Amino acid sequence: MQFIKPGSVAIHYAAKGDPAHTALVFSNSLGTDLRIWDRVAPAFEDDFFVVRYDKRGHGLSDAPPAPYTLDEHVSDLIALMDALDVRRAVICGDSVGGLIAQGVAARDVDRVQALVLCDTAARIGDAETWNGRIEAAGKGGIEALADATMQRWFAPAYRDAHAVEVSGWRNMLVRTPLAGFLGTMMAIRDADLTEDTDGISVPALVVVGEHDGSTPPDVVRGLSDLIDESEFHVIDGAGHLPCIDSSDKLVRLMRQFLKRNGLAG
Predict the structure, then answer these.
(1) How would you list the strands of the sheet with 2-4, edge to edge?
(2) Neighbours of 80 (CB within 10 A)
(3) All domains of the chain, ordered by start, with CATH?
(4) Residue 197: how many CA atoms within 13 Å on its side-chain side?
(5) Each residue of 134-167: pLDDT tens digit?
(6) 94 class by beta-carbon count within 10 Å (0-12 exposed, 13-18 middle, 19+ buried)
(7) Can you give the pTM of this predicted structure?
């Protein structure tokens, strides 16, 4: 395990590969930690300096009291990159991790060589929906949202075929620090990057699971439409976390995208 305090919070991270190579940084979704990339990250460790981390309030990183802002999440990632001497990177994010990736690109475009945006948007959901979830979790804990979250994360066929595995991902969700979960929901609720993302000028691979119940394909396609140098793909059979249920397909799309943009051999 690797820990660092590059800014106001201590961050748990994992870095593998040659630091002289192009950096590939992964950012996670709400209620998860860096383990969601276990089936994706190793495919790139020979050719990239691969960095995964637990954002504030998640995994083994510090979980300060809510509320959080998206700017704080963005600042945490930039501080981590600085501490690891990562001056430029390809950033891959799922859901709120994709919001964080967009935020880094909007704040400091020279730091970003390309983006991989999975199952995310420039604005995710609406205030009414997020306030309802915040209230439910505040009263009943994350457990109150867990079953509905699994339905949004994974397609019915996948839940049926991988019931034991899905129970493990559910455990990850409910064991997230409540302060981190609430704080990050507030950050998502208050974030609207539509104007900022419309100005992003780096290549972007935008993907979404066919059965994503959190950011459906039409929502994610709207994100792709904002970015001039983007390509959009729907992953058949996948849900909100293709890094888990369709990792081989995601790796293939990423490899092709990185090669087309001169970032991989």
Answers:
(1) 2-4, 11-16, 49-53, 23-27, 89-94, 112-118, 204-209, 230-235
(2) 22
(3) 2-260 (3.40.50.1820)
(4) 26
(5) 999 999 999 999 999 999 999 999 999 999 999 9
(6) buried
(7) 0.97
